[in-house]
Structure formats: C-alpha cells, structure tokens
Give the backbone structure.
Amino acid sequence: MSTPRRRILLIAAVPVVAAAVLATAEFTSAFAAEDLRAAPRTTAQALTAPAAGKPTPTTTPAGAAGAPVATGTPSAAGSAPSATAKAPTVTPTSGQATSGKVPAPLTVRELPNQAKAGWKPIGSPKRRTVTPTSSLNECAAIQGATGWQQQGWASTAKTPAIQDTFTFATPADADHVRQSLGAQLDGCQAALRDAQTKQGAHTPDATSARTATHPAAAAWQYQWTAVPGMSAPGSQTHHVYLAQDGAVLTVLQYSDMASAGQGNSASPAADADLLTTLAGSLALTR
C-alpha cells in the first residue's frame, strides 16, 4: 500500500462552522473521498530575495504559446491529472543552512479585496507536520520543505483564503522549488481540463493565466467549472500568489465562487501590488 500524500485542503462555499475545520484539521489523500462527502473543499501558497523594480502585470494566458508545462495533484479518487511533469524531489543541499524563521502571515487589511470580502482569520497560525509531498491545488505540489505554517481566513460569503509558508534547508532549495512551482502553475490549464475530463465533463472549460510577475514572485488565476476533488464544484476563479525570500517560500490562495455571487475580484495591477506586499512580508524576517 502506498503512503498517502498529505494535501492542503480548504473549504469553499460552506457554512462557517465547516470552514472552522481549516484551523485544526489535516487531511491525506487516503481520506479525501470521505472528507468530500462531508463538505466540498478548495485549496491554497510560495518566495527568494526580491530584486529592485516593480512587479510587472501580465495578461498572457499560460499555455497560449504551445503546450503547457504540466503537473498535477491527486483528484478526490487519488489519481493524478494526466500532466507529464511533477514536483521535483528536493534533498536538502550541502552548504550553509538557514534558521528558517517563519514570517507572520498577512494581516486582513493586506489580503486581496478586503473591502468587499471582509476576511476574518480562522484561528491563529498553525504549525503543520511536514510531509514528503504537499499538494497546493489541482496543479502543483511541493516537496523538500523542513517547516510548514498555515493560516486561513473566511470571507463574509463563507469562502476561504489560505496562506501556507514553507521553510527549506537552504535558499537554493527554496529557489529550486519556487521555479518548479512556477512551471507547474504555468501548465495548470492542462491539469484542470484533464481533471474535468476524468470527472465526465462534456466540455472542459478551464483556462489559466499568469497575471503578474516579479523576480522572486508571481501570480496566477484559473477559471473553470470545478469538479469534485480539491475544489468545491461549480464555476469559480481561483487565485494563487507565490513568493520566496531566502530559505522561505509562501503561497496565498483564494477563490471567487459564482455560487456565492462573486465575480473575478482581481486585476493584473492589483495582483502586482499584492506580490509587492507578499514579498515585503518575507523580507522583514531576514
């Protein structure tokens, strides 16, 4: 029997009492099917020293120029999307290791679309047990971390946001994982459409785009009619923000759910501003 891979799961468009599970529960793919019967979920996280200059918004869809770089996390049934790339195995490198100090998560005032979303924290930041592989969403997974902190928030519409922060043995390890996650997320459209096809969707409609870039950070969004698995089913826009500084990498994720009356709450310019905030929060811990 294979060892189950730990997954990061969020609860979307469900009652607040269910969302509170985020603050205390950890899930593995072995229990995903049972968990999904209780409530649908959606997911969320990553950074290196920011270079001078302002993040650059972009609206070029990922995968528009040829075949996407593919990877994927397991579906609810435990099978991975038919993407060809996967998260690399990272063995802590030799050389000077860092203390891996974990920065505080963003404040509610720093979260995207706070004026309308009304984000409130779900408990306090939690230290999670590091596992060999942690799936961030349907498209990307992380390996080789030495530490993991998680913070969740719930909006007034009962939709979630989550920030996962990982530490690594060396800055080189963190940078390697950041670049791998970027490639995986650039190939998200293929992974999502494959998941839709496997769940019997007649017309896979997932689209994915990198919306902002930075020397050590990037933002993506994908729009799709989600199928059961790591996301709550239904039409939605999912937002992913990744940043790295030294040996620390953080990922912030949230979803706009059509079922909650939400449209796309972000723009390329807003995503670029959020990357500056996210990178700045990491730089404060150096």
About this structure: The mean pLDDT is 73. The longest strand covers residues 234-245. The two ends are 42 Å apart (CA to CA). The chain is about 20% helix and 30% strand.
